[in-house]
Amino acid sequence: MGSSLNEILSFNDSFVKFKQYEPYITSKYPDKKSVILTCMDTRLVELLPKAMNMRNGDVKIVKSAGAQVSHPFGAIMRSLLVAVYALKADEVYVIGHHDCGMSAIDPEVMLSSMLERGISEDIINTVKYSGIDLDEWLRGFGDVSTSVIKSVDIIRNHPLMPKMTPVHGLVIDPNTGKLDLLEDGNAYLAEKGVQAEV
């Protein structure tokens, strides 16, 4: 199978020429003052915003494999902080999904695939010897609910996240769009006696 680059560029020429972008014009600030951390799963590209009644311009969307914050000072957490401090998001949603590919990732299978695609054993060993636990770094999470709650906890308790920011945890069905609430950030703040910013 060939690259889709030429097809994309050809379509894009027509898209711009005929001003098909006009219905999507909006500002860089989310109208609903929210940021969503969700999975990169292909089934969620259009389904998730539709299931949440979100249109172009309503929210910031950050995507990672499994909707995970794997490191408190990594790129995902930085993106969430940028959304809150620079782009006027007052609320955070972490939305995992059922049947997530990340839940079944086996590090040994991933490493074998890397070897098959040309990454040498020497490079893998160098990464391991430099202190990176590849088995842990590549491991899937097993249970989506537990993973979402873990990410909510990392975000909610991050030293740079404003304490009055509601952080919600949900799981979406990638077939129907049904959302199940795991963590209500507003209820959490109310229990702590903190007034939400929203």
TrEMBL record:
Q: What is its EC number?
A: 4.2.1.1
The organism named in the record is Ureibacillus chungkukjangi
The UniProt catalytic activity note for this protein reads: hydrogencarbonate + H(+) = CO2 + H2O
Say which domain of life the source belongs to. Bacteria
Entry protein name: carbonic anhydrase
Cofactor names from the entry are:
Zn(2+)
User: Per its UniProt entry, what is the enzyme's top EC class, as one word?
Assistant: lyase
Q: Which family does the UniProt entry place this protein in?
A: Belongs to the beta-class carbonic anhydrase family.
- Give GO MF terms, alphabetically: carbonate dehydratase activity; zinc ion binding
The record, for InterPro entries, names: Carbonic_anhydrase, Carbonic_anhydrase_sf
What the record notes about the co-factor is: Binds 1 zinc ion per subunit.
Keyword set for this entry?
A: Metal-binding, Zinc
Phylogenetic placement of the source organism: Bacteria, Bacillati, Bacillota, Bacilli, Bacillales
Which amino acid positions bind Zn(2+), per UniProt?
C39, D41, H97, C100
